[in-house]
Design brief:
mainly beta, single chain, 34% strand, 60 strands
Length: 742
């Protein structure tokens, strides 16, 4: 075959279209108060569910035990989804709903089974109620989050009436661009379902509420520029068994050139590749920004999150790590300075009052001046930081007679009292943070002035991720020593301090990149699938479970997967369903591939458990005990189980089942049909008063009797499995009287 080199250049002048960058979501499911930072967005949709109501009862003995209401959930204080049971004057009700485009009140419970069992209300678009529906989809008394009402099981029809809880309300609203200010902090509250039991009868908890927020990308302003790329194959048409030389080039100095099936390449170059059609995209970002790893964002350094926090008043505080994260966060801490001290012939040594410790997170400790054991004048300790500098001692060199003493100056902090040389600080008191108190008024032969030691100094820099964004960190600021020694005036120590400064997180989305695309496709460049010696197209099993030819054209295997050995679709002999794996996640029953990650594990029914479940034994419809979380059988009950106590019956009942004779009024000589069924019986016999025929089966249907000649009594007699106790049931068949004409 002759080969020709055809050079084609496809230049593209691009007006970049908006991309679906910046799309995201934020879900709040744990009860509490939060602050949501508004991103740049196209549309932002908020869904709010109030918490479900606890199940309740009405009882002759205890009076009405009203179900505890669930708490409401809110967004921006305007979207309000009330908790189940919060309607005034109604002890069982669905939650209210207001403020949204969609406002759906919560559903009332279903009172079924003669109020022995009640099904909690299912939340609109949310969680189902306890024991709902019909105690099979949710065999747990607790309502499912978000918003499901608690169920109730264990009532007694003439004594205790079960009432399920109402579900939380549901609110949904979509905000358009500009409705919410980007960067604004929006208060979010997630309501809790009550977890207390109102009385001795079992009732289910209400499911917690939730607030789900999703948003689409903000639409970027169109940008123009000369950006283009080209892809050329040589030869332009090749069979699947051949290779081609792919050459590429670009204009406009793109930040990245990405070719499908190859990856990132330089702005121009060539490579030998398998035959096929290739598509490339070039990306360009504004000066000062870089392309993100997923090629959807141009990012620049973000300084909007930089900030600082200073604590100078003695006391205990809580510092919240910036919600948007940080680049580096530096903490400086000074302990409080020591009060000045004296040594006196008249009064003895009067130790200056120690300064208090200052701490950050309980690990960075700047000790107060004077706090070193056994020393009445000393600098504060320092530990836990990248920099740890003990506090300085007072300066007695200014006045060797000790009539005047200069307090110790804190490292990188405040100077001491009367320091230096009583000019920079002509005041007894040490300067904050951490300066030691000075002393003046000693008598060289009677009273010696001793200045106070300064507080210690600690400094530590935390890198991004060392502290969790949004976490609360305890902070303590130590006070300077305040008490004046007896007999002479002296200066107080300066209070401590904790200074916190942080830089911005490393980067944040800024703009949508400008793009241009190009392709090696032409009218003569059609990929020819590779075939075997018999002319059959060769297929290969792909990672997605489908098969594809050498040109990449896929054939779906319908979810049954494919075999890497035969490179064909697996036969559809299995039932497509999810099965619970040993790791607590769901897998395709046919292919074994992961289909869903279950945060709280899964059950044997192939469903994720929506919340962390505490397993208990419950009486199943098959008469055995089952795990309340997984539905797996935990105990076989020979004589069935009790739904009120969720335990196996220990004493068998009498004859369980039915015993019928049809019809019971017949003409003489007519046969009747005898049917019976039993449970927990060891032996059974059916006899009649007219014949000696005895049937010994445990169960039978429509067994024909001998012709009835007169009144006949049929009797079912059985002995049970436990101790052979006999019991019986009887049915009488009468004969219609015969009349003779006169």
């Amino acid at each position: 075959m002759n080969q020709r080199s055809i050079l084609s250049l496809i230049s593209v002048l691009v007006i970049a279209m908006p991309l679906a960058a910046l799309a995201g979501s934020q879900n709040y499911t744990t009860p509490g108060s939060y602050s949501f930072t508004v991103p740049s967005y196209g549309t932002l949709t908020v869904q709010v569910w109030g918490a479900g109501q606890h199940g309740g009862i009405g009882t002759i003995l205890y009076g009405d035990q009203y179900a505890t209401p669930g708490a409401g959930s809110t967004f921006n204080n305007t979207l309000i989804a009330g908790g189940g049971g919060t309607v005034p004057g109604q002890y069982i009700s669905g939650g209210s709903a207001s403020g949204g485009d969609v406002n759906t009140p919560g559903n009332m419970p279903i009172e079924g089974y003669g109020n022995i069992t009640a099904i909690g209300g299912s939340a609109p678009n949310g969680g189902i109620g306890g024991f709902s529906p019909n105690m099979t989809a949710n065999p747990n008394g607790n309502g499912v989050a978000p918003g499901g009402g608690g169920g109730c099981s264990g009532g007694i029809w003439w004594l205790v009436a079960c009432f399920g809880g109402g579900s939380g309300g549901y609110v949904e609203k979509t905000y358009n661009t500009g409705d919410l200010t980007a960067g604004a902090s929006i208060p979010v509250v997630v309501g809790a379902g009550d977890t207390s039991t109102p009385n001795a009868y079992g009732t289910g908890y209400g499911g917690n509420g939730a607030v789900n927020i999703t948003w689409t990308a903000s639409t970027s302003s169109p940008s123009t520029g000369s950006l283009s790329c080209s892809l050329v194959t040589n030869p332009t048409a090749a069979s699947s068994s051949q290779t081609q030389t792919l050459s590429w080039s670009s204009t406009g100095q793109p930040n990245d050139f990405f070719i499908q099936s190859i990856g990132d390449v330089s702005n121009s170059g060539s490579a030998v590749v398998p035959s096929g059609t290739y598509t490339g995209t070039v990306y360009s970002c504004p000066t000062g920004s870089t392309l993100s790893a997923n090629r959807t964002q141009c990012v620049i350094a973000n300084t909007s999150n930089a900030g600082s926090q200073t604590y100078t008043t003695p006391g205990s505080y809580s510092f919240t790590v910036p919600q948007g994260g940080y680049g580096t966060l530096t903490v400086q801490a000074w302990g409080g300075g020591q009060h000045s001290a004296i040594g006196s012939i008249l009064y003895g040594d009067q130790y200056g009052t120690f300064g208090g410790n200052s701490t950050f997170n309980g690990t960075l400790i700047a000790g107060g001046g004077g706090g070193v054991g056994g020393q009445y004048v000393s600098g504060g300790s320092a530990s836990g930081g990248d920099v740890n500098i003990p506090g300085n001692l007072p300066d007695w060199s200014v006045d060797p007679t000790h009539i005047t003493a200069v307090g110790g100056s804190a490292p990188n902090g405040g100077i001491g009292g009367y320091s230096p040389n009583m000019t920079a600080n002509p005041n007894w008191n040490g300067v904050a943070p951490g300066g030691g108190g000075g002393c003046s008024g000693g008598i060289w032969w009677l009273v010696a002035c001793l200045g106070g030691g300064s507080g210690g100094y600690v400094e530590k820099a935390y890198n991004a991720g060392d502290l969790t964004a949004g976490a609360s960190i305890p902070v303590v600021v130590g006070a300077g020593g305040q008490n004046t020694p007896i007999g002479t005036g002296g200066g107080a120590g300066g209070d401590g301090a904790v200074n916190i400064t942080w830089t911005a997180s490393s980067s944040s989305p800024n703009a949508t990149p400008q793009t241009a695309t190009c392709s090696s496709a032409s009218s003569s460049n059609t990929c020819i699938p590779q075939t075997d010696s018999s002319g059959n197209v060769i297929m290969s099993c792909q990672a997605d479970g489908n098969i594809a030819n050498s040109c990449g054209t896929e054939t779906s295997c319908g979810g049954y997967g494919c075999s890497t050995t035969t490179n064909q679709c697996n036969p559809n002999t299995c039932t497509l369903s999810d099965t619970c794996g040993a790791d607590g996640n769901l897998y395709n029953a046919c292919t074994g591939t992961l289909t869903q990650v279950c945060a709280a594990g899964c059950n044997q029914a192939g469903q994720c458990i929506s919340a962390q479940c505490v397993p208990t034994n419950i009486c199943g419809s098959d008469g055995n005990l089952h795990n309340s979380c997984t539905s797996a059988m935990t105990n076989f009950c020979l004589f069935g189980c009790s739904g009120s106590t969720d335990t196996c019956n220990t004493v068998p009942p009498g004859i369980v089942g039915s015993f019928t004779v049809k019809p019971t009024l017949v003409k003489k000589g007519t046969q009747v049909k005898v049917s019976w069924s039993t449970s927990y019986m060891k032996t059974c016999a059916v006899s009649n008063t007219a014949t000696s025929v005895v049937w010994t089966e445990l169960s039978a249907t429509d067994t024909l009797s001998d012709p009835i000649q007169g009144q006949t009594t049929f009797t079912l007699s059985c002995t049970d499995l436990l101790n052979g106790t006999a019991s019986s049931q009887s049915q009488v068949v009468n004969v219609v009287p015969a009349f003779n004409e006169l």
